[in-house]
Amino acid sequence: MLPVTDLFVRGGTAVITLDTLRAYGADVDSGLARCMNNEAFYIRMVKLALSDPSGIEKLGAALAAKDVRSAFEAAHSLKGVYANLSLTPVFEPVSALTEIARAGSLDGTDELFEKFKEKYAELEALADE
Prior knowledge:
CATH superfamily: HPT domain
Number of strands: 0
Radius of gyration: 15 Å
CATH architecture: Up-down Bundle
Structural class: mainly alpha
Helix content: 55-70%
CATH topology: Four Helix Bundle (Hemerythrin (Met), subunit A)
Shape: elongated
């Protein structure tokens, strides 16, 4: 059996390890702590977060429609997922976007959403390596 740090999570050719998540910028130790230090469970939760892009689609649609309330709700939901998994590179832009929408504005959110999508694509790429 492979050491847990080399644990592969496969969905097609998907491979994510604790080391690749650390290199990506995730605070793996905090994420693991939230998952009772169960490394396999943490990796499964990261894979699950990548398996459903509907929240990202909702956020994009809300921003395109200039719907502050829906943008806040979608961003807040994503923020919770990425905060709990300590996926800092995607958490930071979506967190900032959440706070802008919470204040009733969408000023600057297009740039934050682009940064979020860029970091999300980097995370997805880890699964495809």
